[in-house]
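User: Hey, my collaborator sent me this sequence without any context and asked if I could get a structure. I don't really work with proteins. Can you help?
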Amino acid sequence: MAQPRHVGGFLALITAGLLAFPLAATAQMRIKDLVEVEGVRGNQLLGYGLVVGLNGTGDRLQNSPFTQQSLEGMLERLGVNITGLNVKTRNVAAVMVMAELPPFPRQGTRVDVSISTMGDAKSLAGGNLIATPLMGADGKIYAVAQGPVATAGYAVEGAAASVTKGVPTSGRVANGAIVEREVDFDLDSLSRVRLALRNPDFSTANRIATAVNQTLGAGTARATDPTTVDLIVPATYQGDVAALLTRIETIQVRPDQVARVVIDEQSGTIVMGENVRISTVAIAQGNLTVRVEETPQVSQPGPFAQQGQTTIVPRTQITVDEGEGQRINVLEGGVSLNDLVNGLNRLGATPRDVIVILQAIKAAGALHAELEVM
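Assistant: No problem. I've predicted the 3D structure and written it out in structure-token form, which is a compact way to encode the shape of the chain:
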């Protein structure tokens, strides 16, 4: 295959990948990679706690009253009363603790937790999270987190300079939370199971239902909308839904998708699907560039001159580039992604230019795809 032309790098690279593997877009995928089973999901947990053992990089208690109140409350529960005392320690930081409770958790299961500071702490390196209850959306405690905090960054400062790498005010505690409460969900009692598509699409949902019916029998599955496939549990799998899902999730299905162009204006990234098509359109792209260069020169009197003074003589050079080399290119209707990119290549467009061109084509009604700007 011929090497793709350079369009600022990324667009040509993405296109080259799509052209080099033309079967990838039509390849079949397992149903387990396309859907999620309703009810089999995680739950977000949140807690408030303290990290201790910091080497002078914790919260300033006078600036973070919630840290001082939490410290006083914790010590009081341990039998130490410091109420009213002027505590100046900087080895403690108030943090928010987050975790995700996996599906079907059992008591004693360990999960990872993420930690972020709330006050003016500079780093969590070397700290230890003390016992922190983690609550769900219903206000009940489902896990308790504790352990040493691992950070990916650091912060070092002196009197006249400082160095910071990464985000030292965030960290993780691997396997730091222990599940104390289980989420009740009886999978085997279900008589119907609903499969939720990760990327909603009518064609994909119908293909999944058809593939399931071919495997388990007609009438077992039905696509109710682009997001949901309703599945009736056959009599042979009553009370053993896990076995049914195990058989279904390995079935191969060819997914479909809506033609879409995704643009990230901040980074200049453009990603286009293979189904992107455009109607006949003429495109002209050119930039007006004005370059002003100042090269002042110094003029001074000759040696032993009786009079005269040193002066600065301005020298200005102005160059105007009106993009006269650019021409109007016509892209015929129904062109493929390859033709579209080749046409933009001929214009010498950069990713930033392509973003503007695609938005203009969409405004003209010639781009038959969703244009998503991030």
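In plain terms: Helices lie at 10-20, 65-77, 202-216, 241-248, 337-346, 351-363. You can pass these tokens on to your collaborator as they are.
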